[in-house]
Amino acid sequence: MKWCIKCVNQRQPDDPGVAIYFEYKKRQMCFACDRWRKVEDNLQAVAKTIEALRGVARWGTGDMMEAAFTGFAALPAPGQTSLSWREILEVSPNASRDEVSMSYKTLRSRHHPDKGGDPVMFNAVQKAFEQAAKELHP
What we know:
Layout (H helix, E strand, L loop, with lengths): L4 H4 L9 E7 L2 E7 L5 H20 L3 H8 L15 H4 L8 H15 L7 H18 L2
Antiparallel strand pairs: 1-2
C-alpha cells in the first residue's frame, strides 16, 4: 500500500468505521467494522475476515460459507433505515395522530443538530414523520 505525505498527515474522520458492500449469490451483503479507532485498522479487520472466509471456501467446507454469510445482509444505504416510521418515532402500532405528533416533536428537538443532536437521526425522524403523515392522513 502506498501512502502520500498528504494522506499521512490527515486526521482520522469522526467515524472511522468502514463498510464494504458486495453481492454474493445474487444477494446484497455488507462487511462492516467500527471496532478500531483508525479507518485503516477497521479496513484491515474486514480484509482479514474476507481472507478467513475465502480459506473456508478453499478448504472444502463450502456448506459453512452459506451459514457464515447469513449474518452479513447488506446494511441500508447511508441516510436510509430498515426501521418502520413507528419504530423511529417510538410509537405503538395503534398510536393516535396526537401521540405520533408529540413523539415527533420530542425526537425532533432531541436530535436537532443546532442543539448538539445527531443530524442523521434528525433526518430519519423527519422522514419518518413524513411517512406517518401520508399514512395517517390519506
